[in-house]
Amino acid sequence: MNHYHLFPDVSPQESADYLAKKLACYTDAADLAEDLRQQNPQIVVLDVRALPLYEQGHIPGAVSFPHRTMTGETLAALDPQKLYITYCDGIGCNGSTKGALKLARAGFYVRELSGGLDFWQRDNLPVTRGLPPGRWPVADAGGECGC
């Protein structure tokens, strides 16, 4: 059976519009790592998992902000001019989506990290342990995805 005809074709413009919107809502490990290397002050990385998981390992510089604790009151402490990148364990976890949705509904700029911490580690990017957010290492492991 030819599955090509199961769905209607979309125009090149419809494809471009959809893909642009998708890229506006997601980032990947390589792009985020480059922003962190450049110390982009507009980006805040939020680890939205439970605190014990954050302590076991998180992206350098990420702030622990479990999605379950996000309320109008707790979100009021955030800067509405920043871009927030949410992440959780990986594609089997929807915590980053829940956190991103809460942020977006509260009026914040937000993107999700594709693949979460799992894909971050698959790209051999650094991880920090403990409570302090840490910072990007001066000499990092690279993590080029090749795309």
CATH C-level name of the domain at 26-123 = Alpha Beta
Order of helices and strands: HEHEHEHEHEH
Helix content: 25-40%
Low-confidence stretches: none
CA-based shape: globular
N-to-C span = 32 Å
Overall pLDDT metric: 92
Q: Kindly identify the CATH topology of the domain at 26-123.
A: Oxidized Rhodanese, domain 1
**Main pleated-sheet profile:** 5 strands, parallel
Secondary structure: elements and pairs:
Layout: H1 12-25, E1 26-27, H2 29-37, E2 43-47, H3 51-56, E3 63-64, H4 72-75, E4 83-87, H5 95-105, E5 109-113, H6 116-122
Parallel strand pairs: 1-5, 2-3, 2-4, 4-5
Fold and architecture overview:
Strand 2 (43-47), helix 3 and strand 3 form a beta-alpha-beta unit. The protein has a domain at 26-123: Rhodanese-like domain (Oxidized Rhodanese, domain 1), CATH 3.40.250.10. The protein is 35% helix and 13% strand. The longest helix has 14 residues, at 12-25. It is globular, with a radius of gyration of 17 Å. Strands 1-5-4-2-3 form a five-stranded parallel beta sheet. The mean pLDDT is 92. The chain is built from six helices and five strands, in the order αβαβαβαβαβα. It has 147 residues and is α/β, with parallel strands linked by helices.
